[in-house]
Every structure is written in structure tokens, then in C-alpha cells.
Amino acid sequence: MDTTSVDSAQTAMESKPESKSEPSQHIQPATQTPGVAVQPEPKHSGLGIAGFVLSILSTLLIFGLLIIAGVLEATTPGGIDETSPEAIIVGLLLFAFIGLTLVALGLGVAGLFQKQRKKIFAILGTIFSSVTVLATLALIGYGTTID
Q1: pTM of the model
Q2: Which of 16, 23, 83, 130 is 20 to 30 A away from residue 43, measured at CA?
Q3: Could you give the CA distance from residue 33 to residue 14 in angstroms, rounded to a whole number?
């Protein structure tokens, strides 16, 4: 084999078009406009996420506790005695869960004041915990008026 046939074979192999299964070797890097700073997308507020999670958790706990209190009232002949250990535990847990909701409200409000953070979870946590506190206090107020 002479060198011209080897050179022509190499040239023929190099000039073959790339198949579709092979990735292109001529990928151009993304260009940035000089002098323009790219702003990274802000992260979610950690305080807002914590407030949101706690507000959902405390709402579910209060709802579950009210269901337990209703079942205790319905299954006890003559109603549950206010001085019974069950009633005292339910009452203490209710105030503890309201306290948890107030912590969630504080975290949600704190998340609203964080700079350069997404505030959606802080807004949702603040709204959910506010509604939970107001609804629970309204339900307690309504329960005290029933004889």
C-alpha cells in the first residue's frame, strides 16, 4: 500500500458526516453579555418554610384534638366532667397546640421580612396559622357560651 492510498482513506474517513447517534463535537458555550451580572434565583425563606410546616401540623393536631374531645363528650354518659383527667389533658394539649400555632405565626412573619428570599411559604404559613388561631379561639368562645 502506498502512502497516497492511506492518506486518501484517512481523508475519506474524516469527511464522513456524523451520524445522529453521535453527539456533536462543536457545541458552543453559552455567551454572556459583558458587564451584565446574572442574578441567581432567590431561595425560599427557611423561616417561611418552617412556619408553613408548623402551621399545617398544628392545624391538623388541633383538628384531631377537637375530634377526640367530641368523641369523649359523646361517649361519656351525661357528658365529660370538666375536672376529669381526660378533660384536663385535652385542655392542656389544646393550649399547647395554640402555642405551636403562635410559633408558626411568628416564623411566618419573620420569613416575610427576610431580604432576597422567596416569600410564598412565609405568606402561606402566616395565613394558615392566623386562620387556625382565630378559628380555634372562636370555637372556644362559642363552647363557653353553650350550657
Answers
A1: 0.70
A2: 130
A3: 35
Contact partners, residue 129, CB within 8 Å, separation at least 6: 51, 54, 55, 58, 59, 101, 102, 104, 105, 108
Cell numbers found for residue 109: 412573619
CA–CA distance, 106 with 13 (Å, rounded to integer): 70
Compute the distance between CA of residue 110 and CA of residue 96 in angstroms, rounded to an integer. Answer: 21
pLDDT tens digits for 58-91? 999 999 999 999 999 899 898 888 899 999 999 9
**Cell 365529660, residue?**
80
Cell matching residue 9: 482513506
